Amino acid sequence: MTGIQTQAQFALQETYRFIDTHLLPALDWPALSAAVAFRRNTPRPNTAVFSDTLPLVVYQALGGEPVDALPLNACWLLHLLAARVFDDIQDEEGGDHPWHQDGLRQALPTGIGLQAAATLSLAHLSCGAETLAALLEVFGRATAVAARAQSLETVSDLADGALDRYFAHIGATTAEVFGAGTWAGGRLYHNEAERLEALYNFGYNFGLYVAILDDCLDLADVAHGRFRLPVLYAASLQEHPAHPELLVLFAQPTRAQHVDQVQRLLSEMGAVIWSANLATAFRQKAVDALQALPQSVQEALIPYVST
Predict the structure, then answer these.
(1) Does residue 243 lie in a domain region?
(2) What local confidence, expressed as pLDDT, does residue 95 receive?
(3) Residues 6+ apart with CB under 8 A from 138
(4) Domain count, the chain
């Protein structure tokens, strides 16, 4: 584990410690505690660990003391966990997750409770009313934008314009949210518009990178009729010799039995490589966005998106 990875893991552990100490005991709700414990104990890749600590890492990079940003990072982490719960509800997945032990009856209140706990966490910040209002606004707006986009998602869409709709969707559900997270870390430290915009752009493009990379690493969603970027890109290559065969496989009612064949065609059509290259391009755009910030901030943040 590199020094950067160790720092991110430590920041995440301290955030969970704050949640365990200052939020969960007061709420006294076993379902919330179980949900938090599940996320904490589930192995996560390096990019996910960084994603879970975005506001705190940004605040620290600007020169702030990490302990001062723990309530903000707890708010961020709980919002992400609530989104995971609501995703499971909408997609009818995650039956083995603790919030689904009693079906929708438990999952829905748990998601709402996690969002409430996220808001309560901000009450522990030592900041002025103007800063607190700005943080509430940015998280509230990002949550509303993401929820609206989620309600419009068409998971098996291969019609004309599907790629454009895909990018609009991940822009609203992931990139906007990540942009809000990095902006919030900056806003807690200062209120300099140009630098906050740079931090937002950094988070926005990093969010696109994370979303597309996740699509490249998990092609099994094809079995459930959920078409991600590699599939959408391949479906757009109408002149490719393998295109007709790909569409035939998608039309099969037994699609789950043909995942290996679909993956072979996606590889043959260069769809996964194209998508991975696009993810890398967005990661570079995230790095480029930092050019408007002091060199010390760039040096602190760039390694996180390069691991």
Answers:
(1) yes
(2) 85
(3) 180, 183, 184, 187
(4) 2
